[in-house]
Amino acid sequence: MKAVLAGALVLLAGCGGLKTYPEDAAPKNLTVRTAASGVRAELDIHSVDAQCRAPYVGTVKLDKPSVAVGIPADGWSYLKFDFASSSFLRGSHQMTKGTLLRTRAGHSYEADVSYKDDIYNVVLREKPARGAAREVPLLDLASCTK
Predict the structure, then answer these.
(1) pTM attached to this predicted model
(2) Which domains does the chain have, with CATH numbers?
(3) Which of the listed ranges 2-11, 34-43, 47-56 does the model predict with the highest average pLDDT?
């Protein structure tokens, strides 16, 4: 019995370690505003190479109303917004919205992430150094090859 318990603890310890996205990955060019009460929200960031492979770089917890993140400019990234909730009556529920994003130097990005009445939403905008922000469509990773 002790061996089974010890094995279970080792497995649980190995599953709990999401890699934190590096604070100094790039100058802060993405602001994520989160309005999601009753759920856990996180942003998984992936770099995207010329072959459209998207290795995981790290996770940012969206546990504050606004979080600034540095995404490398002049390249592709894949942003995956994860929402999770758990309750005794409803059980566990998870929702993911992802998008391929090509960042550009001199531009900033804003993501409005929300959860209300079982509706999850992500709106992404790009803003040049001068001028108005424009909404950026959410693109799946397969769009990388197009």
Answers:
(1) 0.82
(2) 19-145 (2.60.40)
(3) 47-56
